[in-house]
Amino acid sequence: MLDIFEYLAEKGLNPRQASEGNVRALCPFHGEPEGKPGRLYIKTDEGDTWGLTWCFQCGARGSINKLLKFYGDKPIDFTPLESGNPLIEVAARYYHERLFENFEAYLYLEDRGLEEATIVQARLGYADGGLGAHLLSKGYFPEDIKESGLLRIDGSDFFNDEIIFPVIQQGRAMQLRGKKKGSMFGVKTTLYNSDAILGEDTAVLAEGEVDVLTLQQMGYNAIGVPGVQTWKDEWTEQLEDAKRVYIVFDQDKAGISGAEKTAGKIGPKSRIVKLPHKGIDVNDWYVKYGKRREDFDWLFGQAKGGLLVTVQQAYDKWTQVEGNADLVGLKFNINALDKSMSYGQLPGQVVVTLARTDAGKSIDVINKMMRNRLVNDEYKCLFISLEQTRNEIFERLYRIQNFYFPGSSVLDTIGFWKNNLLIVDKNRVKEHEVEDCIEQFTYEIGKPADKVIVDYLGYYARSFNGNAKERTSEAIMGLKRIAKDYETVVEAPVQGNRTGEIGEAMSFDMAADAAEVEHTANIMMALWRPEQKMKKDPDSQDKPGDVYHQIIKSKNGGTGAISKYHFSPLTLALVPYDDPLFDAAIRERSYALAGFTWKEATQKRIDGDLSI
After folding, report:
1. CA–CA dist 342, 328 (Å, integer)
2. What domains can be seen in the chain, in order of their start residue?
3. How many CB atoms lie within 10 A of CB 369?
4. 3-state secondary structure at position 126
5. DSSP labels for 62-86?
6. pLDDT tens string 57-116
7. What span, in angstroms and rounded, lies between the C-alpha atoms of 558 and 566?
8. Which of 267, 84, 96 minimizes the C-alpha distance to 190?
9. What are the phi and psi torsion angles at 75 (to 5°)?
10. H helices within 321-389, ranges in order?
């Protein structure tokens, strides 16, 4: 058998190994000069595709005999297959010819911004319903045609009245896809235009054939997936030559979620490109918005992912945070805390609340959720509860809502949180599951979560390996990475250690495995209830039910600020002392001492009955 590498070297074509099973060389068909990277690819794996050639510059394609004839050498005595199934190549040629006879189909492609050179190089076609008759006229047997998948059982064409996109490898049609029907039945899914990335340092991954061709027309090495949720491990291997992979999927729920998952499978060299308008795709931005290569280059420059960032990207982020005079983060809707902090909680930050056993960590985070929701109809929260069950959470949401909106029904509570809150109530959740939940949240709600609550850190750390200190360190650092990667606020209550007295103010060194937590958290708060004290202070001004928050560390300012609440024991609301409903919270405690249920106490508020 001919040694292809040696033959190319003899002809001065400077061969070198490309991806596995391929050699690249200078193309003699368009006179590629010395010093160029070589755009001619030749298959060297043994099998039906051995010797297939394809030039990505001039489009020359064929078997190794095409190259041998070019140099006047004797062709190899074999008949190379035109594709995995020769009928596919014949069908592709037939459909391509029909395209130029159908004005409406050709006009559709022109309206999508595709130039004639692109249409010809991609060998796009039109299925007119006459393929079966054409193949029979060429002497192919009906059984072979049906077996190829080109005909249905009833003898009609599989594709009819639609645009055809051949899947071309090494210059030959290996599969056919239709604009309406997609791939033929029983055909293995492959990347579209995969030859474009052979030996290339940069690849662009798009959704759909038209988007791929739009990018290819602008000079990008673009390939396409048949579906944003269908990424296969073998496709990652096809990208081994690429040092950078840009993922530019449609700007919709499925595309956003699919891009994140695909980037995770490709690894650090991937970058997610975000199109600037909701619901659009690459071709929309090209055709409807009139954008061209320089616009896409700018967009790619804003892509997120990987470890390295440019100074320009650092500046762009700075303008959003430190350099943004109008910056407003996520507020607590608690005056004493919000006034003391410069701009609230910011995406990418981790907030921890340090509390003793029975201080009310879980009640606290649910009340914070409610305070946010009261002032922001668009507030979105993912609540990962490792301690409370979903029904327990609903019971607390229902009660707290009845403090702020007396007489609320269960349907009112459902409606209040329907598009704002999703809950996970597993006892143990791994880090990758947290990420999956965040992505699923965006897909289900249509907007990323403003805050992700993990209740609480000690339970979450149990899913990591090592001793208690190592588990806590891995858990909190992982939450910090998630906050940054998904640009959200992550809050996690933290159990206090056994130092100090229960019911008194706390410092950050009282957290379990304090050093790891304190070093990683952006904002650290303490929560305590003075009535938990074993030794009561006779001079204390605290009332039963009083609860305190204190900011004990904050990169956003406000360290040392204290907020005081009263805990409503029936509806479970934590009400700030300066809240207009504070008196209702005090009165509720009197109802509780008198033996009323929370529903009875709520009804008394509705009736205006102040009697005990």
Report:
1. 9
2. 4-70 (3.90.580.10), 86-311 (3.40.1360.10), 335-580 (3.40.50.300)
3. 23
4. strand
5. E-HHHHHHHTTPPPPS----SSSSH
6. 787 877 788 888 888 887 775 543 334 578 899 999 999 999 999 999 999 999 999 999
7. 22
8. 84
9. -65, 155
10. 335-338, 361-375
